[in-house]
Amino acid sequence: MIADHNANQTKAQPELVALFVSDTHLNPGLPLTTEAFLRFLEKQAISAKALYLLGDLFEYWVGDDNINDAYNLRIVQALRKVHDHGVQLYWIAGNRDFLIGTDFAAATGAVLLHDPSVIELAGKKVIISHGDAQCTDDHAYMKFREQVRQAEWQNNFLAMPLDQRKKIIEGLRTESKMEQKQKSVAIMDVNADAIAALFSQTGTSTMIHGHTHRPAIHVSNDQTRYVLPDWDCEDPDKRGGWLAAYSDGSIQTYDWDGSLK
């Protein structure tokens, strides 16, 4: 009888509802980061009901006609494997891979979401975003973002030969790195008023985003904002990680190697 009583008192572990990850910046020049992300897909992602990719999965994306590039195809096939395991994939575009489109969605099985989007976790509404649209203090970037998110600009760019697009993107990356060195950290972070407006407009009290590469949990006025980390396992001080949401409403953060933070 004692054994039965103890068994009845044992609490069931909460179900892993969803995982959130962003800013892996995958590219052939980051082999250790690539392997770490693929391990995450193979070991952790397949155990969740849903996986949310919140932008900048790739360092850059020149168009869906580049899916068959050997490196890109490796990532696409790994994501498809997760989907085929029964995990629902969701995608929000980042500032590096906003040209991902319907062919990528079909190949991976991912659902393309608008930025921002309101989802439900354990009966609670949560706002998710990449985060760059809230960096309103960076006026030069916001102007650039407005331009490249227009359908006309994207159609004209995608009409160019693939090699030409790659050269343009490489030039933009080099220019971006030079500009970032001249900008303060505060300017490249999200704007407090923009965050407050997003909470107010959506009627939510929990937010998850990436982009800033400044992982943190911000709690204020009964509102909680989770900022996802960027990934870089080439650096001696390896970094990366994800957010896990459970059926009991709890949210936990994990490091790139799967250890609880």
UniProtKB/TrEMBL annotation:
The gene name on file is: lpxH
Question: Might you name a Gene Ontology BP term for this protein?
Answer: lipid A biosynthetic process
What keywords were assigned to this record? Cell inner membrane, Cell membrane, Hydrolase, Lipid A biosynthesis, Lipid biosynthesis, Lipid metabolism, Manganese, Membrane, Metal-binding
- Which annotated residues bind substrate? 95-96, 138, 176, 180, 183, 211
- Annotated Mn(2+) 2 binding sites: 56, 95, 130, 211
Q: Which organism is it from?
A: Undibacterium pigrum
> What SUPFAM superfamilies would the database entry show?
Metallo-dependent phosphatases
- Superkingdom of this entry's organism? Bacteria
What's this protein's name? Answer: UDP-2,3-diacylglucosamine hydrolase
- Keyword Chaperone in record: no
Record membrane topology: Peripheral membrane protein
Task: Return the similarity comment.
Answer: Belongs to the LpxH family.
The record's GO molecular-function terms, alphabetically, read: manganese ion binding; UDP-2,3-diacylglucosamine hydrolase activity
A Pfam short name: Metallophos
Function statement: Hydrolyzes the pyrophosphate bond of UDP-2,3-diacylglucosamine to yield 2,3-diacylglucosamine 1-phosphate (lipid X) and UMP by catalyzing the attack of water at the alpha-P atom. Involved in the biosynthesis of lipid A, a phosphorylated glycolipid that anchors the lipopolysaccharide to the outer membrane of the cell.
